[in-house]
Design a protein that fits this description.
Helix content of chain A: 25-40%
CATH topology of the largest domain in chain A: Aspartate Aminotransferase, domain 2
Largest sheet of chain A: 7 strands, mixed
Oligomer: homodimer
Structural class of chain A: alpha/beta
Number of strands of chain A: 14
Radius of gyration of chain A: 21 Å
Strand order of the largest sheet of chain A: 2-10-9-8-5-3-4
Number of helices of chain A: 9
Largest interface: A-B, 63 and 64 residues
Order of helices and strands of chain A: EHHEHEHEEEEEEEHHHEEHEEH
Strand content of chain A: 15-25%
CATH class of the largest domain in chain A: Alpha Beta
Distance between the termini of chain A: 28 Å
């Protein structure tokens, strides 16, 4: 039986993507070869990479606006150090918003490169909200934020206006909602939430901000080198890029980010409504900053945990336990999660209510 | 029809690996979940990573000898910069053997970190042989070499004796032959030749050489941090690690590296014998340094190219054209290549002889 997979990442992808990917492992494009054994320089794979790069820009509304999309390796964790390497001047400084665990990890790497100003932090409240009302120094080389905090279940709704380049880690909500993406200068996202399997990282960068900070950058960490090589500076993560393309094609076929966002809104509304209605549960994050991707919630009475856990496991749900930093539960309802699966969870929450 | 895949990388893997991998994309370990959607922290995947790490050491005869195996992202190209970052002292120096394109790329990155002595080079002869008779400075922080040169078809048979740590890029011949691997201190290999699909890199490192060079290393570039995190410092390339494990299991089931080497010897002997016998062909590399993984050869008369190309394509062979730096042909006969496929190529070479 197929599970209702609420895993925070790697996470659910569309069933048709799994089926096409499985077939390509045996015989890709009817070539008589597995996708795992073809040269990344083959015509067939170059076409995959080119389409994935252009479709990523198209879905974000960034075509023809001076941006390049790359599919690199190393995850967002490698982007944490590539951002300052590529953008922070020697003796320059960067501004960071500390909204959670991954923001903190990004800040740690930036500090190795120079002055790193934390403009605001919600750490004291265990990151249950997005800090607001801060000032970004106008002489910063860039401002860095995390659009969605997977662990804490918070999401930035309004991005700050600033005159400095904006860098954003969108690992857990890329392609899930419409934004004016042209307000960002560098976006990166590990594929393994809304876009594909672990093993590739989407980087979307405004070309004009690169090659200006005067640092000597090792080749594999240099965004400009990857752009020149059309995202093939070295052997890319072929299969992960292919599965990402399949997922991007699925988003486009659904009607693009606009259509997917409507479904995401409906799923989040359904689940938060139950959390707010059901006297047994409470949300973990401040209401106005609630994430539409990672819904964190707690039992008011921890004694109900055993009964609740038995119920959702029985219903074929997996991946629901919360991160240890928050406790309770976390329902990750990424793009590929059907609303029917969310209804299963809501029904389980109701069943608990009538049981206890 | 399944092709005879001579691609230099990504390259052929065992058919049973493709079949198991394809199945796991639909339903991994009968869990009701795809391998692409499971958490890397799940019990099932932690078991995969643990077994892959210990099996890699076992197959190399390095268990219990102070080594750790890691499956990282970024390919050998990222290892090119991680080697100096982790091993070269500030104001230290490293010694490199320049035996081909990838060695040159490694040297380029090392130079960003400090004095980089090239102890010998075969560049003047278009890398048609492995340089010998050089001296490794006894005060170098390490000596770096490339065990097999994929592009030029040469392979180191005797590694130099030295008192300094030895770093070796074994991307294209790892697990293909027996060596005393305990003579190496750091081995790295992109998976996509003998070990798995593109997207993960095996690193085998003697723990005692790390954390001694005094540099501040960004987290994702720090081998010691990856060891402490048991190769899960960030989300690993889950699927690529799983397929690598399947391939390592296949090697073990075959009888380990010793048994695989015998098959590789037989395949290489069969093909080189035909190259030397057939008056239409000649080998590209000096005989004593010929690679048993990448067999480079040329037509004596380029006018025969059209006829030869038609013949091998007709026979279901793919991936045979040589790299532009050498021209001619390159037959990559990695572990998973059956001797029957090599015989098909030999038969085609004979057919050309009787035709022209």
């Amino acid at each position: 039986m197929k599970k209702h997979n609420y895993s925070a990442g790697p996470s659910i992808l569309p069933q048709e993507v799994f089926e096409k990917a499985s077939q390509a492992v045996l015989n890709f494009n009817n070539s008589g070869l597995s996708i795992l054994e073809i040269s990344h320089r083959s015509k067939d794979f170059v076409a995959v990479m080119d389409e994935a790069r252009s479709l990523a820009l198209e879905l974000l509304g960034l075509e023809g606006k001076g941006y390049q999309a790359l599919f690199l390796q190393g995850g967002a964790s490698t982007a944490f150090l590539m951002a300052p390497y590529n953008l922070m001047k020697e003796n320059g400084k960067a501004a960071y918003l500390d909204s959670g665990t991954w923001a903190t990890a990004a800040i740690k790497e930036a500090k190795l490169f120079g002055e790193t100003v934390v403009v605001a932090s919600s750490k004291e409240e265990n990151y249950n909200h997005i800090p607001k009302g801060y000032t970004i120094p106008s002489d910063a080389d860039y401002f860095h934020c995390t659009s969605n905090n997977t662990i804490f279940g918070t999401q930035i709704k309004d991005f700050p206006a600033t005159n400095v380049p904006v860098v954003c880690d969108m690992s857990s909500d890329i392609f899930s909602r419409q934004l004016d993406f042209s307000k960002f200068d560098l976006i990166y996202a590990g594929a393994q939430k809304n876009m594909g399997p672990a093993g590739t990282t989407l980087v979307v960068v405004k070309e004009e901000i690169l090659e200006k900070n005067g640092r000597t950058i090792p080749s594999m960490l240099d965004y400009a080198k990857h752009i020149k090589a059309e995202s093939m500076y070295n052997t890319p993560s072929v299969f992960a890029v292919y599965v990402s393309l399949l997922t991007l094609q699925w988003i486009k076929a659904k009607g693009g980010v606009e259509a997917v966002e409507k479904l995401n809104d409906a799923k989040a509304a359904l689940l938060y409504a139950e959390i707010d209605r059901n006297p047994l549960f409470k949300g973990a994050a401040v209401v106005e900053d609630r994430s539409k991707m990672n819904v964190t919630f707690l039992l008011n009475n921890p004694d109900h945990a055993a009964a609740f856990d038995a119920l959702w496991k029985e219903a074929g749900i997996s991946g629901l336990p919360g991160h240890r930093s928050v406790g309770g539960y976390r329902a990750s309802i990424y793009n590929a999660m059907p609303i029917e699966s969310v209804q299963v969870l809501v029904d389980v929450m109701k069943a608990l209510e009538s049981k206890v």
